[in-house]
Design goal:
With about 90 residues, the chain is α+β, with helices and mostly antiparallel strands. It has 3 helices and 2 strands.
Length: about 90
């Protein structure tokens, strides 16, 4: 069998028309498992799934502001708990 695929694996992770895409290339079908693993890693790294979920429904600007404040509050509480835990463990 002849394959029309490049010898080296190439990863591309760049926006196309406002969308992000990931590309994995290999030289044989034996590399299919490897290519699938690398593809999965690239999708995770590019956070494509999170972006799709985030854009699934329209969110009004006022709701975005509220969500942003809530996330900041959660982040601040998480950081305070870390600092408090660190203080309690130090003797």
């Amino acid at each position: 069998m002849m394959y029309d695929i490049d010898k080296e694996f190439l990863f591309k992770n760049k926006p196309v028309g406002g969308f992000m895409y990931v590309e994995v290339r290999g030289d044989s079908l034996g590399d299919l498992d490897r290519a699938l693993r690398q593809f999965s890693k690239q999708v995770k790294k590019a956070e494509i799934v999170n972006e799709v979920k985030r854009r699934e429904f329209y969110v009004k600007r006022s709701k975005k502001k509220i969500l942003k404040r809530q996330e900041a509050l959660r982040r601040r509480i998480r950081e305070e708990k870390k600092v408090e835990k660190k203080k309690n463990t130090e003797w």
